[in-house]
Design brief:
Layout lengths: L7 H12 L3 H14 L4 E7 L5 E6 L6 H7 L25 H7 L2 E7 L6 E7 L2 E2 L3 E3 L4 E7 L6 H5 L4 H17 L5 E6 L2 E6 L9 H13 L1 H5 L1 E8 L2 E8 L4 E2 L5 E5 L2 E3 L2 H11 L8 E2 L1 E6 L5 E2 L10 E2 L2 H19 L5 H10 L17 H20 L10 E5 L2 E5 L8 E6 L3 E5 L1
Parallel strand pairs: 1-8, 13-16
Antiparallel strand pairs: 1-2, 2-7, 3-4, 3-7, 4-5, 4-6, 8-9, 10-11, 11-16, 12-15, 13-14, 17-18, 19-20, 21-22
Helix pairs in contact: 1-4, 2-6, 9-10, 11-12
This protein binds adenosine-5'-diphosphate and magnesium ion (MG).
Magnesium ion (MG) binds next to helix 2.
């Protein structure tokens, strides 16, 4: 038996097994690097879902040729100045993303610092590194990855269709973009622009508005119009963000996001906690939309749990859970009878006789003001129903003979009965 130290390319490929699962994970690492580099604009490009080509460009602080050369070495990082794993304030810290990605692909990195006369570029082809050469590039950095996993065919086989891979990339970028409204993001997929998020600079004294604008741009304008602001603090832990009204819900929890110190995390704790907080407001199989941001002292949370850094461990999970539940319950209780514009409009629509003209709220069904407007317009067709519910246009009343008595059944087009009045611009009183 011979024990030997593995060559660095093999070591990097082993690490890549954990860090680079698919194009989206490479993009996650590269975009995190751009965020850590202070970028204000990040552009991602994909071809064939990232299988043949992906790139990430930023306008961040860039690298000198010496730094460029070192950045692709294993365990090389600028982000742990005090070697202090208890105090991680950057998204990266492991110093293994670039060498891992480079070991399984044809990799090019071009970078320029703001005061340099020109950019520098290095290439790594299946692990073999070229010395930095002069290149042309504006201040900032571009990483290009061609033929990802060409060096690890087993992993290549697990790639799904370009569409699926592109979907994962979009999801990854959106999550990171939610936490950074001050940065503009763009994704081009086979020449088609699929994400274009302009920077939402924080307004004076109102970071929450910028964040909500970004969340609306990603989750839907419905969310922006139907979200409650969350802002709570307990024992040095701050919880901010936006939680959707219970009436704006979905059949799965895919639109529930948690960020811990700016890092998107997938945490089972969140789903259970949210379910508990919404219990009194939502059916068991429905899920609200929300994006919550926890900010806590770095030493009270361990982010060094998994190479992909998508999980964290809280020193006091009970405290975090309690804070989330009480903040959500408080916000929901204060919201009182507010229902989301979407559901209110849907409810009103259910009473509309088939083919009959109805209201068109100004600017679509977006704002709660549109709802007030719609409530008023609702009155007109109502009086018509009051007079003769069974003779509504487009509906045939069924006449039944039963035990010699003639009964007139309400038309089937009104499954919810006949609307009589509306309360709080939300509830409809119906007669069946
Ligand atoms: P980590 O992010 O954990 O430090 P990486 O392998 O991702 O490890 O990156 C190594 C180093 O390369 C970073 O610490 C950083 O100094 C430098 N670097 C990577 N990407 C960029 C970028 N887009 N702009 C500036 N510097 C970068
Ligand atoms: Mg990194």
């Amino acid at each position: 038996m011979t024990i030997r130290l593995l060559p660095s390319t093999t070591v990097n490929r082993i690490a890549a097994g954990e860090v680079v699962e698919r194009p989206a994970s490479a993009i996650k690492e590269l975009v995190e690097n751009s965020i850590d580099a202070g970028a204000r604009r990040i552009e991602v490009e994909l071809r064939d879902g990232g299988r043949t080509y992906l790139s990430v460009s930023d306008d961040g602080h860039g690298m000198t040729p010496e730094e460029l050369d070192l950045a692709v070495e294993r365990h090389a990082t600028s982000k742990l100045p005090e070697d202090d794993l208890e105090n991680i304030v950057t998204l990266g810290f492991r110093g293994e993303a670039l060498p891992s990605i480079a070991s399984v692909s044809r990799f090019t990195m071009t970078s320029r610092t703001p005061d340099a006369d020109n950019a520098w570029q290095i290439d790594i082809n299946g692990g073999a590194k070229s010395p930095p050469a002069p290149a042309s590039h504006p201040p900032g950095t571009t990483v290009e990855v061609r033929d990802i996993f060409f060096a690890t065919p087993a992993r290549l086989k697990f790639l799904k269709t370009p569409r699926t891979e592109s979907g994962h990339v979009q999801d990854t970028i959106k999550r990171l973009a939610m936490a950074h409204p001050e940065i503009a993001f763009r994704l081009t997929d086979d020449g088609r622009q699929v994400i274009n998020l302009p920077a939402c600079p924080p307004l004076v004294d109102d970071e929450s508005a910028a964040r909500l604008e970004r969340l609306g741009g990603i989750m839907s304008s419905d969310f922006a119009a139907n979200a409650l602001e969350i802002d709570a603090e307990r024992e040095g832990i701050r919880l901010t963000g936006h939680a959707g009204l219970p009436t704006l819900n979905r059949g799965n929890a895919a639109l529930q996001f948690l960020f811990v110190n700016g890092r998107p995390v997938r945490d089972k704790l969140l789903f259970g906690t949210v379910r508990g907080a919404y219990r009194d407001f939502l059916a068991h199989d429905r899920h609200p939309l929300l994006a919550l941001f926890l900010d806590l002292p770095p030493e009270t949370v361990d982010v060094n749990v998994h190479p992909a850094k998508t999980e964290v461990r809280f020193r006091d999970p009970g405290l975090v859970r309690g804070l989330i539940v009480s903040a959500l319950k408080h916000a929901l209780a204060n919201a009182g009878h507010r229902a989301s514009t979407t559901v209110a409009n849907a409810a009103l629509g259910a009473f509309r006789p088939q083919g009959a003209p109805f209201y068109a709220p100004p600017g679509g069904a977006r704002t709660s003001y549109g709802l007030v407007e719609s409530g008023r317009n609702f009155q007109a067709p109502l009086t018509h129903f009051d007079a003769q519910p069974s003779a509504a246009p487009g509906a045939e009343a069924a006449v039944l003979e039963r035990d010699g008595v003639t009964e007139v059944e309400p038309p089937v087009d009104y499954p919810l009965g006949v609307a009589r009045a509306q309360v709080h611009e939300t509830y409809v009183v119906a007669q069946t």
